[in-house]
Write a structure and sequence with these properties.
This protein is mainly alpha-helical. The chain is built from three helices and no strands.
Length: 88
């Protein structure tokens, strides 16, 4: 059971790091949150709506912040799964 939880923790930690990298690309390097030719899901859809109704800058900032809001819980939970039974 411990091996499976460590594998799940590593996967969740990887997802969090990917989300953190995505938010860094959007916020720091002004990369578009909506990819060319990719399917648009929830975060991308919210970003596109805000871009259409407000401005491209607002959509970019909100999209990057949404990715950050997803990244930190994933990183925390993955870390807790990986190192929770280290001293047991």
């Amino acid at each position: 059971m411990q091996r499976e939880s460590k594998l799940a923790g590593a996967f969740i930690l990887f997802l969090g790091l990917f989300s953190l990298f995505t938010s860094l690309r959007i916020l720091a390097f002004s990369e578009s949150a909506t990819g060319e030719g990719s399917s648009c899901k929830s975060i991308c859809g919210i970003t596109m709506l805000l871009t259409q109704f407000l401005s491209a800058e607002v959509g970019q900032i909100v999209g990057g912040l949404l990715w950050l809001c997803i990244a930190f819980p994933f990183i925390w939970f993955g870390y807790r799964l990986l190192w929770s039974n280290r001293h047991a």
